[in-house]
Amino acid sequence: MRNETMAIHAGYEPEATTHAVAVPIYQTAAYAFDSADHGAALFNLEAEGFRYSRIANPTSAVLEKRISQLEGGVGALAVATGQAALHFAFVNVADHGGNIVSVPQLYGTTHTLLSHILPRQGITGRFAESDKPEAIEKLIDENTRAVFAETIGNPAGNVCDIEALAKIAHAHGVPLIVDNTVATPILLKPFDYGADIAVHSLTKFLGGHGTTLGGAIVDSGNFPWAKHADRFPAYNRPDTSYHGLVYAERFGRTAYIERARSVYQRTMGSVLSPFNAFLLLQGIETVALRMERHVENAQKVAEFLRKDPRVAWVNYTGFPDSPYYPLVQKYLGGNASSLFTFGIKGGMEAGKTFYDALKLITRLVNIGDAKSLACHPASTTHRQMSAEQQRIAGVLPETIRLSIGIEHSADIIEDIDQALDKACPSRLQAAE
């Protein structure tokens, strides 16, 4: 099936009891067992089924199947937020210690997770000087447990060379984990280029309406955990909490995602509610159509900004002179992201005036909404980072991040135009 069809149908057929066409909301905490032996088999991971909604739920299971099929994976785990998904994704490869080598262009909270939170758990985040494959390779050693990148950086907008990063990671015997939130599987399927694990904040483009938090981890099923037994003992040695179960042996290609569910979702929670899973499924049904409009509108807005004398710079990868333009053609089919940044002449103060003058475009820190959104990253999403860390991540003091929605493009541009008038009145008069 194609994206548009999978987004509507994957993972569900009308259930046998009521023949409901919409996915039912299974608002239940637990599930009855047929017998004591049936319950034991479920808890021993010997039988498929549901036992407790902290571990799995039928509504969430449809969401997991749909996302997995969109990404081309063998399985997925839906959790409460995108940050919970990232946390589980990292500790599921490095809970015996080690380091995660990452590109520097990251969402601010992800940077905090790798630089401050995980080190307290014995996992070190290592940040390369750039997103270039050779910069990543310099930091990989015998203690590295994964390479990490955002397929499209937030807010930097950089497009990572997934195929090159995957080759380097695999040459050193570690998986490539990517955050595919901004691209979504509609624009990019990272498993096609060698990535092993994909992470999503479902709150963003996939959910698409700014109503519902959610996250997901998707397993490609392609990383050979058994081949790298010394580096990943958790997959190749008996798990005493499951009576000696060996994940690589029991689950094969789904070992990663099954361990994430059985070890981390079961014991740490971060559960996605069935109602939230239902809402996210509604959003996913229209994601392919929305991404078309997001991309189309963003190009028009970026072109308007680039021609405007009040604007100092525009960082949009759809421009042929962008260093990432070739990667947009290779990985995104020429569809530059609707998330991009720009700066106004007059610096930070002019930028703040512009930001405060917006009327249609909403000021907040979310992205990927049907509505157009704006953010000042230096004072919000990346506030915890030093000025140098912000610069490397693609954030300058005057940077405005735009997430272009699906409204009429003329209305979006009119709002930007009037806000520029207020931010740079003298420059407008000089241009006239």
Detailed description of the structure:
The model has no long low-confidence stretch (mean pLDDT 93). The chain is α/β, with parallel strands linked by helices. Strands 1-7-6-5-4-2-3 form a 7-stranded mixed β-sheet, with helices on both faces. It contains 18 helices and 12 strands. It has 2 domains: 3-283, Aspartate Aminotransferase, domain 2, CATH 3.40.640.10; 288-431, Aspartate Aminotransferase, domain 1 (Alpha-Beta Complex). It is globular. Helix 3 runs parallel beside helix 12, helix 4 crosses helix 11 (255-268) and helix 15 (347-357) crosses helix 17. The longest helix has 21 residues, at 287-307.
Task: Give a nutshell description of this structure.
The longest helix has 21 residues, at 287-307. Helix 15 crosses helix 17.
Instruction: Say what the CATH topology of the largest domain is.
Output: Aspartate Aminotransferase, domain 2
Any idea what the CATH architecture of the largest domain is? 3-Layer(aba) Sandwich
- Oligomeric state: single chain
Describe the strand arrangement of the main beta sheet, using strand numbers: 1-7-6-5-4-2-3
What is the percent of helical residues?
A: 40-55%
Q: Which sequence of SSEs, written as H and E, runs from N to C?
A: HHHEHEHEHEHEHEEHHHHHEHEHEEHEHH
- Strand fraction equals 5-15%
Class per helix and strand makeup: alpha/beta
Give the biggest sheet: 7 strands, mixed
Specify Rg, calculated over alpha carbons.
22 Å
What number is the mean pLDDT? 93
Distance between the termini: 53 Å
Number of helices: 18
Unreliable runs, pLDDT <50, ≥5 residues? none
| Total strands | 12
* Count of distinct structural domains: 2
The CATH superfamily name of the largest domain is: Type I PLP-dependent aspartate aminotransferase-like (Major domain)
